[in-house]
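not sure who needs this but someone in the group chat was asking about Major facilitator superfamily domain-containing protein from Aspergillus avenaceus so here u go. i didnt clean anything up, its just raw.
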Amino acid sequence: MDITTAPQDIPEASSRDNGTTEQPSKTNVVVTVDTPRRKSKLSVFLMIIFSGLAIGSDGFNASIIGNLELIMEVIYPNALTTEVASRLSNAFMVGMIIGMLSFGYVADKLGRKTGAVLTTAILVLGIALSAGASGVTRDGMFWMLIIARGIAGVGAGGEYPVAGAGAAEATDEESAVRHKRGFIFAMIADLSASLGFAFGALIPLLLLLCFHQQVRHYESVWRIALALGAIPPLSIFWFRYRMTVSSAYRKSAMRKQHVPYGLAVRKYWRPLVGVCGSWFIYNYISYPFGLFSSTIVGRVNPTSSLALTMAWGTVINCFYIPGAFIGGLLSDRIGRRRTMALGFLLQAILGFILGGALKSIEKSLPLFIVLYGIFLTLGEIGPGSTIVLTASESFPTALRGHGVGVAAAWSKAGAAVGTQVFKPIMAHWGDDEFHGTQAVFLIGSGFAVLGALVAWFVLEDTDTELDNGDQIWKEYLAANGYGHVQWGVEERGSIGPPHTRAEYLQFIIVTSKPTHPPQPPTSTSPTQKETARSPYHPDKTSPQHHTRTANRTDPPNPRSGTVHAASPPSSDPSPIPIHWPRQSPDTASHTAPSPSAPCTGTNQG
């Protein structure tokens, strides 16, 4: 709250014996303005936190099926064939691709808030249908489960353009936050997703232990595990319904304009190819190696029990977590592109070592687990911690949802291809499990080398100042015949620094001694009253304050701000109408109009 005190000329009249009136004296006027900076910081913080929860929920719902398939293989050995297992794994991925492409458009044209609410609702619906999947036959149950997982995938996929664009714009509100955006995004997009993967392995294991690993309870285990995935999106639904809109979106959105996609592709084809290619390669490696970590451990150590195999898989998935911290710190210091290329390259080197020396390494299971985990950590240090941020910073606000959505769709295409070919590659050698495991590491490392080349030679260093990118896009459109674009959108409940929106102040000035003897009260004509206008609907009377008169003393209102003259109360019962010129939201000042400005008895609005 900003409080300023300044001397203002206020007519403070006093009667003399000769009937003349003293000149107005200087009186201190206290102007109390409740700025939204604290609310802005809170909104930014909540936007960041809940974006992370949303993406973490997606990681949980994507990864949990790999561990649940191990349980389903025991209780449905005939129904869960290799083809059904592949469809079950890919249904969520296909749904995510649809959600990413569609909600990229929704986020830019209908708003971040609309997209966030819809994605949450669709995700919860898909999870509920998955947990309650049933059918006359086991095949029917699996088909319902596949369809429900696809619906959940649509909601989960929509989170990436919505949360990615919203979080990037939220971190652009404050310069101090902007310079730490790399680390913040690593926590939002990478750490939260890594925690989601870790919990996706941990929850089924804990449920197995709760049911004492009894086979007759395995169906309850997988249904409860799927149902628990609805808790995070439900917990943030109310905030998303009440979420605010970023300054960047209000200033640079193209909601009411046709987006010239031809010009957009011509301008941004290189960053689009770079983020799509690097994200595709990253998920081609990361998803199957994380999703089937328990399967790989089971092949290396086939004598382990189901619970022990899942426990080792959980340990491996926990190696995702430190990569987010390291990558976030590096991206703010050496840049997004260099961090991504470095991570890809180191992952490729270790992968070739694992594949080439697997015969010796697998003799010590703990050594294999540690090296496998570091292999995943290096992927998170590079593309895992930087790719969502790079995609968000590579496009202007009007295209950010589109760009992130298209790039994320390519990433899930890579994940779907990786999971589709992963098991067939391992099964190609039949009972020779060694060569199957060796092949997936060598192939994954080869793709990591390709990812390093794409990151280094195709991607460009991004500008952390989002307004600069918006200005470049506006100038580019103006130079190509789109000089009269209607930018931005007026929405209530926006976040941003105070200068980005109008401040509405209510002024009450208390006069001093009367210049004539008191007169009996008389009725006040309507023209002597000032009608308080609602700031959002200037033509409607505010229900809170119908009149403002000069002899009325109201307590300070910390929300709207008040002005009080430090002078004695008036004994004059007749009101003095005061009218300040009405200002539009685009031109309203954040400083109080001088009370010394001439007042009239007519409404100037």
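also The chain has a mean pLDDT of 77. if thats useful
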